Amino acid sequence: MHQLFYFALLICLALPFHLFAQDKFEKESRIKPDEIPAEALSFMDSLNYEAKIKWFKEEGLTRKSIEAKFKYENTKFSVEFNLLGNIEDIEIEVNWQNIEPETTDSISKHLQLDCSKFKIVKVQKQFAGSKNDLFFRFPNEANSEKTEIKYEIIVKCYQQKEVNLFEYSFNEKGIPLTKSKIVFKNSSHLEY
């Protein structure tokens, strides 16, 4: 029995590293100022930016959150909070060409394993950490040991005769962390 277990474990370790895709569904809807948690409002007010902030409630398959989206110095930002208003992360939309070449090479190699052909649709650099670390880092991108950096990438993946959208996350070095197939809600009625 033990030999069989160790043999199966050895085979699993010998296989190439591939992520298994889970489904991802997100629905965003605008929210009114009185629906925004006070803690989230306080954080955004403390940034002292004159940018117009749009607030959204984001609902996924397993979680809900609040997002503040705005543009600052021609860059799109998204600050995500939990429903109590505690900050979770800051995402900055970035150009693929502006990422370190070693990181893009690593990410591209992984995508070539998953897709026969692929097109990068959107790239966001994500910063996670404590409220203070994120506040003092914002909007600078100077390295900080106290914040975790990831890349969230939406990819159109061509596989055999199928085309699907996936959301991948990679660490700062381009090592894959998660993969989710983006699913769209089917509607049985017309929405106007």
Strand content: 35-45%
Helical proportion? 10-25%
The poorly predicted ranges are: 2-20, 187-192
Strand order of the largest sheet: 1-10-9-8-7-6-5-4-3-2
What is the number of strand segments? Answer: 10
What structural class do helix, strand and pairing data support? alpha+beta
Please give the alpha-carbon distance between the first and last residues: 61 Å
Q: Write down the overall mean pLDDT.
A: 82
In sequence order, what are the helices and strands, one letter per element?
HEEHEEEEHEHEEE
Radius of gyration: 19 Å
Most strands sheet: 10 strands, mixed
Q: What's the tally of helices?
A: 4
Any overview of this molecule?
It is built from 4 helices and 10 strands; from the N terminus they run H-E-E-H-E-E-E-E-H-E-H-E-E-E. The chain has helices at residues 2-14, 38-46, 101-114, 131-137; strands at residues 22-24, 26-30, 54-60, 64-72, 75-81, 87-93, 117-128, 148-159, 162-171, 176-182. With 192 residues, the protein is of the alpha+beta class. Helices cover 22% and strands 41% of the residues. Residues 2-20 and 187-192 have low confidence and may be disordered.
